[in-house]
Amino acid sequence: MRGTALIETFGTAEAIFRVPFEELVGRGVAPNLAQNVVEGRGVALSRADEIVAHCGRVGIAILTKNHPEYPNLLRECADAPLVLYVRGYVNFNQGEWVSVVGTRKATAQGVEDSARFVADVAQAFPKAVIISGLAFGIDKAAHQAAISNNLKTVAVMAGWVDEIVPRTNIPLARSILEKGGAIVSDMPWGTVISRGNFLSRNRIIAGLSHCTMIVESAAKGGSLVTADIALSYDREVFAMPGRSEDSSRQGTNMLIKSSKAILYQDISDIAQSMGWQRANFSPANPTSLNPYLRETFAALPDTEPFTLDHTSETLSITTAEASSRLMALESQGFIKSVKGRLYQKAKF
To answer: Cys-Cys crosslink for 187: which of 76, 191, 241, 271, Cβ 3.0 to 4.6 Å?
Structure first.
């Protein structure tokens, strides 16, 4: 029986430690776990009191899973942590939450792509929150870009919230807090960071987010694990493509090729896939389109959904050409993808 199930059964975490062995077993707790609870209750409660007292002294918020300020998106996940420790304040249940992750060994292009993506998010969704892991590379670039574009950003740590690793990112952590963001972790005060902690951190990054962007990744890496976790939570994953010979994009190319991630070209991909309304967005007038796209747009049904094949047949062009034209119209906001492989004209 997991911690969440135990609390649902007995009401509160404290109540679990007050129940005798026989009742624990009688209500479905495995005997070995029940024995551990009984034998360790004194130490566990004392440790909990120490953590609560320490958090009170240093100003760390404790959000249990049933707390009204606990992130709703995270609560939806089957393996959501029972407790979150939060330095700073951010409304976890407001705005569009986008995680941006990638390799620690980011290329100059990867850093640039991260910054441009976050800038586009800020322009399209000014209430968005950027989540990442405060590591070197793409994580750092994403946090910095959020601050530069007046977006709140949340850093998820693999250890205690005040133990900033790497230490060279302490100034960035301070900036995150000064700009209204937060630093969070499910690891209690006194935690010694181990390899397994990073998996827990990745789980929280994915769980906090409506969608996850993988900017740059080799064929193996932690950001690919985050992508898989996000998919297991039924969240959208986006990835930036690269040339086949770029080792730094092998992971993102693989995600796209395997249909695990949506190929990202511009911010309209996020808006259309997530169904988010872009701020102050007015698509260009159709008369500004080139003759081929103007012809295509005019031939499309005004209200009914249509397919790629319909477009190809209507205009007597190849499927490849029709796909290219529809992609161009979609990127400029004239059409949008709807359920299945259907398109529909955007409502202006």
So the answer is: 191
